[in-house]
Amino acid sequence: QCQLSGLWRNEQDSLMEISAVRDNGDFQGKYLTWVTLTGGCARASPLMGAQQQPGEGGWPTFAFTVRWDKFSNATTAFAGQCFVDTAGKETLTTMWLLREAVGSLEEDWKATR
Prior knowledge:
Blueprint: E1 6-9, E2 15-18, E3 26-33, E4 43-51, E5 61-67, E6 74-84, E7 90-100
């Protein structure tokens, strides 16, 4: 079974640390990213999420949000699934949607990536 809690690294060398997943599936942690809208050094930001409890033999799905704390007026929502290969390696696959604040309704078209 795949365990979300722990330290994860992505292809961009960003790190995500998830604390223990509660019985109801809720979890929290922090995301340390090297990829920022403003450039510069790595920054840690809080994350909160929930894991869908998998059925027997299933791989859990999950979702979480990251509030890019102190360096960007943006929030990203991630949704994904956890898998374990035959060698026991755990892998998270995710899709993300980033929303950046804009100054007016007319600029809304460019706020989501």
